[in-house]
């Protein structure tokens, strides 16, 4: 069974220690990394590119209009498409947007992955969630990851949960020093199955130094056995059981024959 590890991380505009954040990412070793709050101002691309190198990951090199969201990938996946979308916000409010990448592994159709960072305003979060879902609605297999700035009772969370399943752990991610709230999450459409969660040993010192958020991640199954493969495996198991039963029967018969044969006195 092959899996694709998707992680989400709010890096707080690199106001913390970006080298600590890079060490955290390297320890998690994701195939796809959905980022929020990367530097987004003019001439910030070099800082983001440097962070990608420190993480040992690939970056498309573009994130203008994304509101500080972007996506890194490992060499284990192919990037079919990479886009960044701007979301409308009220005047003088922080820019918002979301990043979208279509990624593929050999022998499988691409999966759409979106990185989102929703507003501090509840009404704006709900409105942006609708825009995001309307934009992504054409993709049959979708992963959405990010900082929702709300918990499961929020309207935006409920909107995403209406068409996708929560696949990341319900472990609190904010604030990093003493996590109490689950703000950073990963959703996936029903066709994408999450493997049992794999814990990763992370440096507590790095987690606190890197950002005010902790990352979250999930391993998604990308090549579950087909019906033909399952049938072949079941047939092989049946043959194995038959052979084993016959072997046991022959062994028991031989043992019984040995017992019935008169032994020299």
Automatic annotation (TrEMBL):
Superkingdom: Bacteria
Under Gene3D superfamilies, the record lists: Endonuclease/exonuclease/phosphatase
Task: Provide this UniProt record's keywords sorted from A to Z.
Answer: Endonuclease, Exonuclease, Hydrolase, Nuclease
Task: Name one molecular function that GO assigns to this entry.
Answer: exonuclease activity
Q: Name one GO cellular component term.
A: membrane
Region named Disordered: 226-265
Family matches, as SUPFAM superfamilies: DNase I-like
Matching InterPro entries = Endo/exonu/phosph_ase_sf, Endo/exonuclease/phosphatase, GPI-anchor_lipid_remodeler
Q: Which residues form the Endonuclease/exonuclease/phosphatase domain?
A: 7-213
Biased region (Low complexity) positions are: 237-246
Q: Which GO terms describe its biological process?
A: GPI anchor biosynthetic process
PANTHER family xref list: CALCOFLUOR WHITE HYPERSENSITIVE PROTEIN PRECURSOR (PTHR14859), ENDONUCLEASE_EXONUCLEASE_PHOSPHATASE DOMAIN-CONTAINING PROTEIN (PTHR14859:SF15)
What name does this protein carry?
Answer: Endonuclease/exonuclease/phosphatase family metal-dependent hydrolase
Native source organism of the sequence: Knoellia remsis
Species classification: Bacteria, Bacillati, Actinomycetota, Actinomycetes, Micrococcales
């Amino acid at each position: 069974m092959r899996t694709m590890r998707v992680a989400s991380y709010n890096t707080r505009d690199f106001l913390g220690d970006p080298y600590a954040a890079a060490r955290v990412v390297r320890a998690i070793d994701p195939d796809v990394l959905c980022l929020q709050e990367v530097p987004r101002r003019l001439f910030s691309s070099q800082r983001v590119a440097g962070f990608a190198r420190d993480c040992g990951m690939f970056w498309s090199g573009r994130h203008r209009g994304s509101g500080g969201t972007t996506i890194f990938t490992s060499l284990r996946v192919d990037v079919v498409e990479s886009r960044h979308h701007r979301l409308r916000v009220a005047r003088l409010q922080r820019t918002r947007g979301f990043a979208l990448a279509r990624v593929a592994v050999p022998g499988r159709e691409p999966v759409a992955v979106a990185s989102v960072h929703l507003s501090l305003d509840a009404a704006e979060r709900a409105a942006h969630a609708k825009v995001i879902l309307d934009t992504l609605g054409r993709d049959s297999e979708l992963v959405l990851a990010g900082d929702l700035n709300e918990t499961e009772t929020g309207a935006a969370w409920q909107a995403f949960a209406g068409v996708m399943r929560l696949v990341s752990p319900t472990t609190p991610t904010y604030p990093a020093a003493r996590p109490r709230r689950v703000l950073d999450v990963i959703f996936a459409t029903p066709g994408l199955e999450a493997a049992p969660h794999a814990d990763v040993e992370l440096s507590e010192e790095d987690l606190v130094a890197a950002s005010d958020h902790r990352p979250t991640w999930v391993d998604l199954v990308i090549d579950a056995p087909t019906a033909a493969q399952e049938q072949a495996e079941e047939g092989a198991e049946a043959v194995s059981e038959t052979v084993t039963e016959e072997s046991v029967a022959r062994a028991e018969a031989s043992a019984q024959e040995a017992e019935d044969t008169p032994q020299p006195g």
